[in-house]
């Protein structure tokens, strides 16, 4: 446990930032999983809606610096490929 006042504050702010970061990442992963589940059910309309949500979550994670831009491009590419190969 830190003794210096600024170090204590830094611990508190790091904990808050870590919580926000994990929320952004987990919501992105959840959106991707929901999209993949709908694709397996072969529901094209719902899949396109879930794809839009997943894309938004990926963009948010990228713009806030939680994931690298190349990873976001790779994820988006894979999701679009899944949608296009449905039928």
What is the element layout, followed by pairings?
Layout: H1 5-41, H2 44-63, H3 69-84
Helix pairs in contact: 1-2, 2-3
Count of helical segments?
A: 3
Shape: elongated
Mean pLDDT across residues: 95
Count of extended strands = 0
- What top-tier CATH class fits best? Mainly Alpha
Q: How much helix is in the residues?
A: over 70%
Radius of gyration: 17 Å
CATH homologous superfamily, by name?
Ribosomal protein S20
Main sheet specs: none
Named CATH architecture = Up-down Bundle
Number of domains: 1
From the N-terminal CA to the C-terminal CA, the straight-line distance is: 58 Å
Regions with little confidence, pLDDT below 50 for 5+ residues: none
Q: What fraction of the residues are assigned to beta strands by DSSP? A: under 5%
CATH topology, anyone? Methane Monooxygenase Hydroxylase, Chain G, domain 1
Task: List SSEs in N-to-C order.
Answer: HHH
Going by helix content, strand content and strand pairing, the class is mainly alpha
Describe the structure.
There is one protein chain. By secondary structure, the chain is mostly helical. It has a single domain, classed as Methane Monooxygenase Hydroxylase, Chain G, domain 1 (Up-down Bundle). It has 3 helices and no strands. It starts with a helix and ends with a helix. The mean pLDDT is 95.
Give a concise summary.
The chain contains three helices and no strands.
Keyword list:
Methane Monooxygenase Hydroxylase, Chain G, domain 1; 3 helices; elongated
């Amino acid at each position: 446990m830190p003794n210096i006042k600024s170090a204590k504050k830094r611990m508190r702010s790091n904990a808050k930032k870590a919580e926000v970061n994990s929320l952004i990442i987990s919501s992105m992963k959840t959106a991707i999983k929901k999209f993949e589940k709908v694709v397996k059910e072969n529901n094209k309309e719902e899949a396109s809606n879930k794809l839009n949500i997943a894309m938004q979550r990926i963009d948010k994670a990228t713009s806030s610096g939680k994931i690298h831009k190349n990873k976001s491009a790779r994820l988006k590419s894979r999701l679009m490929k899944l949608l296009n190969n449905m039928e």
